[in-house]
Amino acid sequence: MEDKNILELERRFQEKIDNDIKIEPNDWMPDDYRQTLIRQISQHAHSEIVGMLPEGNWITRAPNLRRKAVLLAKVQDEAGHGLYLYSAAETLGADREETIDDLHSGKAKYSSIFNYPTLSWADMGAIGWLVDGAAIMNQVPLCRCSYGPYARAMVRVCKEESFHQRQGFEIIAHLAQGTPAQKEMAQDALNRFWWPALMMFGPNDAESKHTVQSMNWKIKRSTNDELRQLFVDVTVPQAEMIGLTIPDKDLKLNKETGHYETGEINWAEFWEVVKGNGPCNKERVDARRKAKEDGMWVREAALAFAEKRKNK
Amino acid sequence: MEKQKALYEYVLRLADDSLILGHRVSEWCGHGPILEEDIALTNLALDLIGQATSLLNYAGELEGKGRDGDALAFLRYEREYKNLLLVEQTNGDFGKTIMRQFLFDAFRKPLFEKLQHSSDQHLAAIAEKSLKETKYHLKHTSEWVIRLGDGTEESHNRIQESLDALWKYTNEIFYKDDVDSVLIAENIIPSSEEIKAEWTKTINDVLEQATLTIPSNNWIQEGGRKGFHTEALGYLLAEMQYMQRAYPNMTW
Q1: Contact B31 A287 (CB under 8 A)
Q2: Which residues of A touch B148 (CB under 8 A)?
Q3: Which residues of B are less than 8 Å from A290 in CB distance?
Q4: Yes or no, beta carbons of A64 and B148 under 8 Å apart
Q5: What is the pLDDT of residues B101-150, one digit of tens each?
Q6: 3-state secondary structure labels for all residues of chain B
Q7: B46 contacts in A (CB within 8 Å)?
Q8: Residue A211: pLDDT band by 50, 70, 90 thresholds?
Q9: What are the chain B neighbours of A49 within 8 Å (beta carbons)?
Q10: Count of A–B CB contacts within 8 Å?
């Protein structure tokens, strides 16, 4: 009897999905759907929060007042995105504190791109242009994700990300047209961030263990390889336009398909960074853990104070 | 001292307070004790950098030597910065950052309230805009001072220590010299007595609610308004000026 009920619930659930009706927090949903979403949304939230660190690294060294203000605003947007996304995960029953503890213990992942260091001002340009550019490719389809709170959060996130992408491109385009030292700085940033940006779309479709189920549930709306191709096709002409060279000797335009073909991604490096062996994995997680530990007394004080006022 | 020169000097002092404090607060970005507070601190830093930009650009105009806001922000020597010693002090823990900001906001709010009626239109306009931001800053920092002061024993002790450490820099807030007397006579700026009365009232009121004690030690440190700083400023400038010094004469 119970099995029959579950089958019926699952049938109605899939019917909603197939008809593009959003799933809302109080609706019945299969446990795997819930867990997949919690994993994906909290990874996304962690990526926003950890992603504040590489760019935060340059706020105090921004070269002029306008760049300093814009960078501050951008990193603050990322904190805001983290906040909506943790809230979206909470609608599925994931406690924010526990989710964050999973990040600190290494159990939860975040986008590997943030495990690469930011070594020059041009990296602020490369990150906005390439990393936010790749993020937009991944995130625009999520505005149509089947889970309502996530889809709605993504609408706002995507609007802000598109500003981020433009500010990054503006930084790097300005450098590319600047003095030889600035141009060299821009090319060096592209050299270091190009391949990690391509890796942001995840493993090839054949290797991606979550893709099929996530596509059926409309949590994911395009495959990793489709999105990566879209990114390459959009970005290569931008690099050419500003006179920078994509660091891929095998890159060529296939005239028949109209798509660019790239050289092989170094998947061994990708998996090493995912496992925790990237240049800054330890530094990033340590910084987040330290912020939490250093802030413990502040949170305790706020709670104690709220308690006192309640009793007054 | 002629009026134009006094006004340049005065605007530069206000600008440097915002610039240096904004820089300090921006160091928190990504490291706040909770996500909501990370966002709040970054917002504060943004407001201060915005004020600094308007004020420095105006100072550049008043000086009339072709320096813009960026040239003033990034290309002066340490002795030429005129900020209060209070605002250059290192962040310390979250409580020290909040206390430094509170002691400053309690001064900035009444100052901007008066300056928005300045006979100098440009300064009045900057003050009017900055006042809106500063009211929020003071509300935010007052609430945190009270929360930490009257929170746990640890938070009480920590923030009391921060107050004790920063108190010696508060007298300088009301530093007065020729610059001030010239501008007061022209109705461009208010007298510091008026501002001090209101600052003292805010401090007493909030610290009492926070169960904190005003230090009895009246040892005073000042010098910022004349360009004599503490050791903390040199490191800040080395970081802030890095790009402009390492890559001179380029645009970004």
Answers
A1: yes
A2: 298, 301, 305
A3: 31
A4: no
A5: 999 999 999 999 999 999 999 999 999 999 999 999 999 999 999 999 99
A6: CCHHHHHHHHHHHHHHHHHHHHHHHHCCCCCCCCHHHHHHHHHHHHHHHHHHHHHHHHHHHHHCCCCCHHHHHHCCCHHHCCCCHHHHCCCCCHHHHHHHHHHHHHHHHHHHHHHCCCCCHHHHHHHHHHHHHHHHHHHHHHHHHHHHHCCCHHHHHHHHHHHHHHHHHCHHHHCCCHHHHHHHHCCCCCCHHHHHHHHHHHHHHHHHHCCCCCCCCCCCCCCHHHCCCCHHHHHHHHHHCHHHHHCCCCCC
A7: 69, 72-73, 76
A8: confident
A9: 35
A10: 138
CB contact (8 A) between residue B30 and residue A56: yes
Strand partners, A259: A254
* Coil, helix or strand at residue A253: strand
One-letter identity of residue B176: K
Mean pLDDT calculated for residue range A276-305: 96
Contact B26 A83 (CB under 8 A): no
The closest CB to that of A52, out of B29, B45, B150, belongs to B29
pLDDT at B132: 98
Check CB contact under 8 Å for A301 and B155. Answer: yes
Q: Which two tokens stand for residue A196?
A: 């990690």
- CA dist., res. B217 & res. A69, Å (int): 39
Helix (H) / strand (E) containing A252: strand A252-254
Query: Is it the case that residue A233 has pLDDT exceeding 70?
Result: yes
Give the separation between CA A233 and CA B219, rounded to whole angstroms: 66
pLDDT at A1: 52
- Predicted ipTM > 0.85: yes
pLDDT digits (tens, 9 = 90+) for B188-228: 999 999 999 999 999 999 999 999 999 987 789 999 999 99
In the predicted model, what is the mean pLDDT of chain A?
Answer: 95
Question: Domains of chain B (ranges plus CATH)?
Answer: 3-246 (1.20.1260.10)
Tell me the per-residue pLDDT of B1-18, one tens digit each, with 9 for 90 and over. Answer: 899 999 999 999 999 999
Cα gap A85→A156, rounded to integer Å: 11
pTM: 0.96
What confidence tens digit (pLDDT) does each residue in A68-91 have? 999 999 999 999 999 999 999 999
Which one of A64, A76, A296 has the shortest CB-CB distance to B252? A64
